[in-house]
Amino acid sequence: MLKLININSNYDFLRKKTTAMIFSLILIILSFGSFATQGLNWGIDFSSGYIVQLKFNQDIDINNIRNSFLDNGINDSVIQYFGSNQEVIIKLQENSNFNKESINSFLINSLQGYSFKIIKLEFVGSQIGSELREKGEWAMLVAILSILVYIGFRFEFLYGIGAIIALIHDVLITLGIFSIFQLQFDLSVLSALLAVIGYSLNDTIVVYDRIRENFTLIHEEDFEKVLNISINQTLSRTIITSLTTLFVLISLLILGGSAVKYFALAMIIGIFVGTYSSIYIASSSLSFLGIGSKK
Fold first, then answer.
1. pLDDT at residue number 266
2. What secondary structure, in 3-state letters, does 38-74 show?
């Protein structure tokens, strides 16, 4: 079945490479504009706030806790079970409704009617958040540079440049969507971004492997025809991989609760962007970099 799909697909992707590049450039400009005007909506992991562990005397529905906080003006809390349905972890960003001295009273007033005790109450300061942001930026930078070295050795240097262009494209647009819509950015989203880098790289390497293989198998003067043939031959694999991954992530988004909501959302955005970039950006960049004339 896969071979039939590969044989029958004959789309001229490279004919739209300029349109794709312009579209991507517009998205990147919008992303930078959003970074400059409103930035990212940092979660408690990267800003400052409170991590509270509560143990109730009976099973508790975290939606009831969330609604209680909403009634008290808190709409950005992160609540998840911890070990059992009687114990929860709550993350609260700094808020004018409470401070270090009044956080206990705020919890008691917000959760009236529930019998509970506070197991742990920690304050995450802005200094810690700043250090985590810096380490996260270094993690992405090291990952991208390592990929450049790896692809440079496996293929050649210009292939590595093409792959890095695609990866930076994916990260910038995914971050831009989070910034434009002010979706919460926390450690789980950072983990998703690193996973997106790996996912996008995997797709790109599959396409690049086929391109390199076809250079020796297909005697064609037009480099873009070789690119189109290679993309079409790997298209079914790209689509099937993306769809099966999306099925899992959509289930996680719907059923996983607030603890993994932004992780799943970042991965879904990243897969759409990564699939698009592996078809258009990674391959088109080889054409713009002049690998065809070099061959």
1. 94
2. CCCEECCCCCCEEEEEEEECCCCCHHHHHHHHHHCCC
